Amino acid sequence: MKILLLEDDVALGETIEDLLVDSGYSVDYVTTGNGAIDSSYDNHYDLYIFDINVPDIDGLDILKSLRDADDMTPAIFISAMTDLKTFLKGFEVGGDDFIKKPFYPEELLVKVNLKLAQNEKKILFGDITYYPKEGKIVKNGKSIYLALVQMHLFELFIKNTDRIILKDELYECLEKPSPNALRFHINKLKNSTGLDIKNIRGSGYILEKS
Q1: Beta pairing partners, 28
Q2: Are 111 and 21 contained in the same domain?
Q3: Which residue in 22, 65, 76, 78 has the fewest CB atoms around it within 10 Å?
Q4: pTM
């Protein structure tokens, strides 16, 4: 599990980083908002931990920009600000949890463990990781975005590997079912994901594990 930590208080940041690393997590630690944005674009993370009051861009604006870009990575805010407005804003921009300073680092660790345990329910297939709860597809560390019909087809195949899925079942994913439409969307899905979806003549299609 990989975590991006944004905290401009170096002493606190290093303490949190050491605790997370000792607990088995991989951590990228940055001290500025721009540093967090650059890291989030260059890497895939399982969790964000963002301080709110940091140089450049505050944690709230960073997460809002990530959510606007369809990045649904879970996020925990840490802040010395305790007013209700800030607390509510954290959830409005897409935060999952909030911890107020001062706090024991172990208190944050409990929240991290809980959030990542919830996020562990994922499907692995070759170089693809699928997070059903978030509807998130990651290949080789980079997110893949699919059109709605292809997303429905992807879920059907990824949850039913090694099973021939009949055409009638696949048609349920289409707005206007037809053999040509089905071939079109499956080819689009294969091109976007690299999945080797095979046509079983006269029956349907199959995604095999090996």
Answers
A1: 4
A2: yes
A3: 22
A4: 0.60
List Cβ neighbours of 2 (8 Å cut-off, separation of 6 or more).
25, 26, 27, 28, 43, 44, 45, 46, 47
Tokens representing 163 are 């099973």
For each of the chain's 210 residues, which pLDDT tens digit applies? 789 999 999 999 999 999 999 998 999 999 999 999 999 988 888 899 999 989 889 999 999 999 888 787 889 999 887 778 888 888 899 898 999 988 888 899 999 998 887 666 678 888 898 888 778 898 887 889 999 999 999 999 998 888 899 999 999 999 899 999 999 999 999 999 999 999 998 889 999 976
With a CB cutoff of 8 Å and minimum separation 6, the contacts of 101 are 78, 79, 80
Taking alpha carbons only, the member of 115, 51, 112 closest to residue 86 is 51
State the residue range of the domain holding 189. Answer: 123-207
| Cα-to-chain-centroid distance, residue 138 | 8
Pair 5, 37: CB distance under 8 Å = no
